[in-house]
Amino acid sequence: MENSPKKRILVIEDEKHIAEGLQINLINRGYDVCIAGNGVSGLEQWKEWCPDLIVLDIMLPGIDGLSLLQNIRLEDKQLPVLILSARADVDDRVKGLSSGGDDYMTKPFNLEEFLLRVDRMLERAKWYDRNDSNSVASTLGALNHYVFGVNRIDFEKSLAFCRAGKVELTGQEIKLLKLFIANRGKPLSRKKLLEIGWGYTGITKTRTIDNFIVRFRKYFEENPKKPRYFKSMRAIGYVFDH
Question: Which fold is adopted by the domain 142-240?
Fold first, then answer.
């Protein structure tokens, strides 16, 4: 019988000594481990390497950990993510878990406890994959379709049925719509939208977001010049609500 492939763990941590220490101990545990030292490389390695679990710091250079996590959750609701952070306040824990984290540990931490949590998270993920595929469909079902006003979005088929008729949505349009829906009623800055939706960092003068908003208003608004759903917020960005 062939041995099953090693589980892959991506450690996204900018403190080199911590990242390398985790890598050594996880490899000794039998895992295949890759390190990313900032948010941008973490996002790239997640897409290219397809890990089975991510260990994520929050305070990262480039894209911060929470923005990175929200980006991942737009495409993958099931990937186990263990947040490992120096931020120990209850509010920080709540933000981390509400952004899509599955578990949260604070630094300094007990190594044996960390390793046990990783083992348990991967075991639970394997159990769900093997025995509860319906739960995955159920979890994603809430985002398979979304209705607001006379508009309906079919995320599974990448289609919108709206005032403009039947519209084939691009992958990036789908991603941005999911981001707005997940943050319904919350103002989102252009910077945050670019970080989460595209992985852009720093200050940029791109009008990417504005161009997408123009499209969304054309698709979904009765009067694009007086939007009801995709509203501008002066000096902030945009908010979606209904």
Answer: Arc Repressor Mutant, subunit A (1.10.10)
| Calpha distance 232→58 (Å, rounded) | 29
Bond from prior residue into 108 cis (ω within 30 degrees of 0): yes
CATH number of 8-137: 3.40.50.2300
Q: pLDDT by residue (tens digit) across 7-56?
A: 999 999 999 999 999 999 999 999 999 999 999 999 999 999 999 999 99
Interatomic CA distance for residues 12 and 38, integer angstroms: 7
* Alpha carbon separation from 62 to 39, 77, 87, 208, 228 (Å, rounded): 5, 23, 18, 19, 34
Q: Is 87 exposed, middle or buried (0-12, 13-18, 19+ CB in 10 A)?
A: middle
Find the DSSP H helices in the chain. Answer: 16-28, 39-49, 65-75, 90-98, 111-131, 133-141, 171-182, 190-198, 208-220
**Sequence ranges of the domains in the chain:** 8-137, 142-240
Q: Among the residues of 107-162, which ranges form H helices? A: 111-131, 133-141
What global pTM score does this model have?
0.70
